[in-house]
# Entry
Amino acid sequence: MADLTSKQRAHLRSLAHRLRPVVHVGTDGISDAVVASVEDALKTRELLKVKVLDGAPLEVRDAADSLSSRLADAHVPQVIGRTIVLYRPFPEEPGIRLPR
# Structure
């Protein structure tokens, strides 16, 4: 999938507004366990929030870049405060229809 357009990012941000963080990044940073947790969460939902706690050893933008690079076909439509929004469409039938 190509990079998201600004309209698509805005649409995903509006959908993510009501969501609660599913995964928390703590003092270990982006470990294999965190990546596995996010991978498992993305099997059941296309859009999720990840919270980077204050004790995390890396900045939020760095955590977002690390997660998106370690997850196949994952995008970061938004980083706000200490929260990362991740999006990965389901391979067979995407549930979220993105604007063109």
The radius of gyration is 13 Å. The chain has one domain: 6-87. The helical segments are 6-16, 32-44, 60-70. The CA atoms of residues 32 and 62 lie 16 Å apart.
